[in-house]
Amino acid sequence: MYAIVEIAGQQFKVAKDQKVFVHRLAGEEGDKVAFDKVLLTADGENITLGAPAIDGAQVGAKITRHLRGDKVIVFKKKRRKGYRVRNGHRQSLTEIIIESIVASGAKKSTPAKAKTDKAAPKKEVKKAAPKKEAKVVAPKEEAPKKAAPKKTPKADDLKKIEGIGPKIASTLQENGIITFEDLAKTKPAQIAEFIKDVRGNHVPDTWPKQAKMAAEGKWDELKEWQDKLDGGIEK
After folding, report:
1. Which of 22, 48, 148, 205 is the residue whose CA sits 20 to 30 A from 181?
2. pTM score
3. Cβ neighbours for 11, distance < 8 A, ≥ 6 positions apart
4. Hey, CA dihedral for 181, 186, 191, 194, is it positive or negative?
5. Cα separation, 233 vs 202, whole angstroms
6. What does the longest C-alpha to C-alpha distance in the chain come to?
7. How far apart (Å, rounded) are the C-alpha atoms in residues 142 and 68?
8. Mean of the per-residue pLDDT values of the chain
9. pLDDT > 90: what percent of the chain?
10. Using one digit for the tens of pLDDT, what is the confidence trace for 89-121?
């Protein structure tokens, strides 16, 4: 005979004298425990299904020991963000041994009720109702005004910089560089780190200077200088 029972949020197929490892249960070693959420019982060809649990069915067990499972390594990484977190986890478990499987007629375990004294209730002395005091209505406080949301700067077309294509422009925007001013303040070495996964040989040495001229509106000077550049590199 076997049964399928729910224990600590997990379902197990159990039989008598079988050892099962479940999530940590409340109780000491040697304590008896009973589980009422029996979903299926089978005795030879006689199979009983619950909807979802079988009324009156119960699985009895005994706690043999408490232990912890094997260590599991959890590693998280975010690409191009410098984010790496490594954690270990060991699940707290309880080993139980199945002692009995009752298909019907078992009483559900209920917590013991606190004992109450049956002494005659004491007569309550009625107290005089207190006089009602006039309520003073406090003036309503004005709700604090919400601060106006900060306006996000409008993104510039970074492709106007000689040497920057659509892929590099989108990569820079993912890293917070969305305007010419942002690019002008970024060092070439940091730009190279951002675009290291973009295919091709890119040299960003002149990009901050080009971006500064674009931010200041010096388009004629920028165009004249870009004619002397080859892919953003000075000839």
Report:
1. 148
2. 0.44
3. 4, 5, 39
4. negative
5. 9
6. 106
7. 56
8. 83
9. 40
10. 999 999 999 999 998 877 776 543 333 344 445
Give how far the C-alpha of residue 213 lies from the chain's centroid of Cα atoms, to the nearest Å: 45
Q: How far is CA 197 from CA 178, 193, 231, in A?
A: 19, 9, 18
Burial annotation 80-118 (CB, 10 A radius, 16+ → b, else e): eeeeeeeeeeeeebbbbebeebbbeebeeeeeeeeeeee
CA angle 81, 87, 92 (to 5 degrees): 150
Which residue(s) pair with 63 in the sheet? 96
Question: Binning pLDDT at 50, 70 and 90, where does residue 225 land?
Answer: confident
Question: Running DSSP on this structure, what letter comes out for residue 64?
Answer: E
Is the CB of residue 41 less than 8 Å from the CB of residue 54? yes
Residue 131: count other Cβ atoms within 10 Å of its Cβ: 5
Q: Hey, what are 120's tokens?
A: 């005659």
Q: Which residue has the tokens 């990569």?
A: 171
Query: Which pair of tokens denotes residue 155?
Result: 């993104």
Check if the beta carbon of residue 175 is closer than 8 Å to that of residue 185.
no
Residues 28 and 109: their CA atoms lie apart, in Å, by 18
Q: What is the arithmetic mean of pLDDT over 67-96?
A: 94
Please give the Cα distance from 169 to 74 (Å, whole number). Answer: 34
* CA pair distance 106, 97, nearest whole angstrom: 19
* Lateral strand order in the sheet of 38-43: 10-15, 2-7, 38-43, 46-49
What is the distance, to the nearest Å, from the Cα of residue 64 to the centroid of all Cα atoms in its chain? 34
